[in-house]
Design a protein that fits this description.
Oligomer: single chain
Shape: globular
CATH class of the largest domain: Alpha Beta
CATH topology of the largest domain: 2-enoyl-CoA Hydratase, Chain A, domain 1
Strand order of the largest sheet: 1-2-3-5-7-10
CATH architecture of the largest domain: Alpha-Beta Complex
Distance between the termini: 41 Å
Largest sheet: 6 strands, mixed
Number of domains: 2
Radius of gyration: 19 Å
Structural class: alpha/beta
Number of strands: 10
Helix content: 40-55%
Order of helices and strands: EEHEEHHEEHEEHHEHEHHHH
Strand content: 15-25%
């Protein structure tokens, strides 16, 4: 059986590609297990400065494989319970990863695929691609971290609108609503994702990792706790070679040289 997920690395950027185009890259236990393995591999690789997640064919991912869910001999609840547990670990790994993660949305991103894209740090969307949360139209509630990320990206009122009506969201509207970072011509989404990662990696990746974690933690942390986390993060950055280089370069009025 061919791999459900492929992993390639070029110019310090790892590309994780969902690779079941005949099923619109629908998520099942095998695919999500391979996705998690790839995420863990690139997260710990010091030679990887950024990660791109994309799909093969016409879809980024159509979400959970409902055909497999309904065929489960233990019933759909048991199937979803297991699948959601696998997906949750992937979402956590993406949020914890201290390097930029970009979703290159090549086609439809629906259901769990929609939530997977939202969990990434940035999203580059092909002009013909479409977002659709999909869950509520099938009498399901949003999962895979979607209820966490969606209101934080677009606000509560817009999130409720997306959840209640589940209208397809084309690329231009996704950009205006803040669901994606950039819209590009079809076929240019991978190049756009690489461009974003290179822009981040021109600065200190060590600092990016701390800042990303602080911003995520800030959504659920009291001010006093967050201030202490910021202080500890600042001390970690100041003590790191990138921090010393950044301050020295500023004082010497020259471009900094990070990530050495």
């Amino acid at each position: 059986m061919d791999a459900c997920v492929s992993l390639t690395t070029s110019d310090k950027v790892a590309t994780i590609q969902l690779n079941r185009p005949e099923a619109y890259n629908a998520l099942d236990k095998d695919m999500v297990g391979e996705l998690l393995h790839a995420l863990l591999q690139v997260s710990s690789d010091p030679d990887v400065h950024g990660v791109v997640i994309t799909g093969t064919g016409k879809a980024f991912s159509a979400g959970g494989n409902l055909r497999a869910v309904m065929a489960n001999p233990q019933g759909p609840a048991a199937a979803f319970n297991e699948l959601a547990a696998y997906v949750s670990v992937c979402i956590i790994e993406i949020r914890r990863m201290r390097k930029p993660v970009v979703a290159a949305i090549n086609g439809i991103a629906a259901g769990g695929g929609f939530s997977l894209a939202l969990a990434s740090d940035f999203r580059v969307m092909a002009r013909s691609a479409v977002l659709k949360q999909g869950f509520t139209s099938n009498a399901l509630c949003i999962d895979s971290g979607g209820t966490f990320t969606l209101p934080r990206l677009v606000g509560l009122a817009r999130a409720l609108e997306i959840a209640a009506f589940d209208a397809p969201i084309p690329a231009d509207r996704a950009l205006v609503w803040g669901l994606v970072t950039e819209v590009v011509d079809d076929g240019e989404e991978l190049a756009g994702a690489h461009r974003l990662i290179r822009a981040v990696a021109e600065k200190s990746l060590h600092t990016y990792g701390h800042t990303k974690q602080l911003l995520i933690d800030a959504t659920e942390t009291p001010l006093e706790t967050q201030l202490e986390k910021e202080r500890q993060g600042l001390l970690a950055c100041v003590s790191h070679p990138d921090g010393i280089e950044g301050m020295t370069a500023f004082l010497e009025k020259r471009p900094p040289r990070y990530n050495r």
